[in-house]
């Protein structure tokens, strides 16, 4: 997942790279047992590489999947792919990575392709200027509090003028009440959108709720989430 040796020193310090990519074959991914462990390793690898490049170039996975244990039961495989994809995007990776099928037959089945529908709508909807979105990790700046054991990762456009944030929150049980808070946003009026991250047939919009708020020094919002995971966007609508 990360280069080592002489070659890594050359490539990681090369000034003329447009983007950088590696394969994501951690033990948690190639022989998966827990989708949340997959998410943790994805975020760790993206944070490490974005640190090396000072968030200056796009970084992404170019191959991943259960190479040591396939095919997987479809429901578990879907949960693993969903955790990988949302963690990759929300933590500051470029897109969702590139899953190698590891199915039988060796093609991306419908149940994996369905994972992409809410992600596609999330990306294509209004609010985030992706060409101005550096993907800096904000795990220490955007705080999600819950009495449940949750996984959370987030990223934004930049540190100096933070006006756009995306994030993903997941648990092994229904999340219920959560508080989202931060003092990192620039001043202005913002919209927080809560998104479903799970495919549903015949759904026009995956937005579950939206909240408008003003940010000066900090903000804190209490939410009730009646599912085990969700994505969110925060973006400024008025300076």
Automatic annotation (TrEMBL):
Organism in which the protein naturally occurs: Mesotoga infera
Protein name per the record: Cellulase (Glycosyl hydrolase family 5)
